[in-house]
């Protein structure tokens, strides 16, 4: 039996490292706090989530187009958006004893230090801007200050006019982007939940002011539909209306979509009505006309914006948490554990779709198995495994969420058929080799 930690988050972290989903960054050099590398299976899962999101929210819609903007923009962009000011800063305090830093708004500075227990040892809070700085130029002393982008949204506002003109889009329409953002968070943590380098899937949806409420509700419904598609039980999801005093000054309505993580209820996604603040602000600071001319009335207007925002890393974390199951299971042989760990991903998101497993390493079986593997891998994400007993190999595939295992046994040499095992039910079915591709395609698309 596999020994796993008690806490669900610890179990996920353990499995991710052991099975090649997510590794600690720079581990051979002692690591870097809250830095994580997506391993061979993690990158497949991550790409599946991003590709599916792009397919649903961009490719299958006639009102949304895509963008892939530069990570480093003109610093004036961030000055105009307010990211270099107090609005994008956190109050930082430090324990005088252990020198650990905290966000002052997340602890009680009159109580003892959560890290070392020292009482009333905190420094006076100072505002700490969380944009990551970099410098451009090759000559020391002549380098100019720039920033790694703190969000993907600003490039979509800056490029609004170019997109609207080149794509000839009529309101309402959206610009979507998937990409990295960077924030010098004071207290990152909880695995990949909060990191300094993260990936976003965002849409800026431009509408007429009179229509914003209708489209706000539309996008709320779309986000719920996506969560269900991702495999999330909506009982674990909460829609928190953000009060006027807590939401951004330009927003008339914001909803945080929160999830019951093992460490508590926290934000997963966000949906905000940003008004016309962003386009107006960039018009004022750049001196450029970012207005929209209505093709029917000829009237020039500044569109208002609905922003559905999805975190890639948090989506992946929730997908892992929802998929993770421990359950009693019948054994295929004496080496197969009576309890199994299984990741019950939706089939579209599973990193590996099909595992090809010869019953033994005998050449007559491996020859057939390798030939079948090479054929299937052209259509599906496949894995070939011939080591250890078939029971242990089933359990390995369960742990990484593979929907189907295909076993080639000695009967396959005569009846030209294989055994297909279903991940969720563990039922096995005999399928003719010449019908296997169609069989799997129908199962994986369903």
Rg estimate, integer Å: 26 Å
Number of helices: 12
The CATH superfamily of the largest domain is identified as Bira Bifunctional Protein, Domain 2
Using DSSP, what is the number of strands?
23
- Gross CATH architecture of the largest domain: 2-Layer Sandwich
**CATH class category label of the largest domain:** Alpha Beta
Measured between the Cα atoms of the first and last residue, the distance is 33 Å
How many independent structural domains?
Answer: 3
What is the 3D form? Answer: globular
- The stretches of 5 or more residues where confidence is low (pLDDT under 50) are none
Helix-strand makeup class: alpha+beta
The spatial strand order of the largest sheet comes to 3-9-10-16-13-12-11
Question: Can you give a write-up of this model?
Answer:
The chain is an alpha+beta fold. It has three domains: 8-84 and 131-319, 2-Layer Sandwich (BirA Bifunctional Protein, domain 2), CATH 3.30.930; 87-130, Rubrerythrin, domain 2 (Single Sheet); 334-445, Rossmann fold. 30% of the residues lie in helices and 28% in strands. The protein is built from twelve helices and 23 strands. A seven-stranded mixed β-sheet has the order 3-9-10-16-13-12-11, sandwiched between helices. Strands 20-19-21-22-23 form a five-stranded mixed β-sheet, with helices on both faces. Helix 2 packs across helix 8 and helix 3 (75-81) crosses helix 7.
């Amino acid at each position: 039996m596999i020994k796993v930690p008690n806490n669900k988050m610890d179990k996920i972290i353990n499995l991710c490292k052991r099975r090649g989903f997510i590794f600690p960054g720079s581990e051979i050099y002692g690591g870097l706090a809250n830095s994580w590398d997506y391993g061979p299976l993690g990158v497949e899962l991550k790409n599946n989530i991003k590709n599916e999101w792009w397919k649903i929210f961009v490719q299958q819609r006639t009102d949304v187009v895509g963008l892939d903007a530069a990570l480093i923009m003109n610093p004036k962009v961030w000055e105009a958006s307010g990211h270099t000011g107090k609005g994008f800063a956190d109050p930082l305090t430090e324990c005088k004893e252990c020198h650990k830093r905290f966000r002052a708004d997340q602890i009680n500075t009159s109580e003892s230090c959560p890290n070392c227990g020292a009482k009333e040892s905190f420094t006076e809070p100072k505002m700490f801007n969380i944009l990551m700085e970099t410098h451009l130029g090759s000559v020391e002393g002549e380098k100019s200050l720039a920033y790694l982008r703190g969000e993907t949204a600003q490039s979509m506002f800056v490029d609004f006019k170019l997109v609207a003109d080149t794509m000839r889009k009529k309101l309402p329409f959206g610009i979507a982007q998937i990409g990295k953002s960077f924030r010098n968070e004071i207290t990152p943590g909880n695995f990949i939940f909060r990191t300094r380098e993260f990936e976003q899937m965002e849409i800026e949806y431009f509408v007429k002011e009179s229509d914003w409420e209708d489209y706000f509700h539309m996008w709320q419904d779309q986000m719920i539909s996506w969560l269900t598609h991702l495999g999330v039980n909506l009982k674990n999801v909460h829609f928190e209306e953000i009060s006027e005093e807590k939401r951004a000054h330009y927003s008339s309505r914001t909803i945080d979509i929160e999830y019951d993580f093992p460490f508590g209820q926290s934000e997963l996604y966000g949906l905000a009505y940003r008004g016309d603040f962003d386009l107006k602000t960039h018009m004022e600071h750049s001196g450029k006309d970012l207005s929209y001319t209505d093709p029917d009335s000829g009237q020039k207007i500044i569109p208002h914006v609905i922003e559905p925002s999805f975190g890639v890393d948090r989506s992946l974390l929730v997908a892992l948490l929802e998929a993770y199951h421990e359950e009693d299971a019948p054994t295929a042989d004496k080496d197969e554990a009576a309890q199994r760990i299984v990741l019950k991903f939706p089939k579209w998101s599973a990193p590996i779709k099909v595992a090809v497993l010869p019953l033994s390493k005998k050449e007559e079986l491996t020859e057939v198995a390798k030939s079948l593997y090479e054929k299937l891998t052209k259509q599906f994400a496949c894995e070939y495994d011939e080591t250890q007993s078939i029971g242990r190999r089933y359990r390995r595939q369960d742990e990484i969420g593979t929907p189907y295992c295909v076993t080639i046994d000695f009967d396959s040499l005569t009846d030209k058929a294989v055994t297909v095992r279903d991940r969720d039910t563990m039922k096995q079915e005999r399928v003719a080799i010449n019908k296997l591709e169609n069989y799997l395609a129908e199962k994986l698309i369903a």
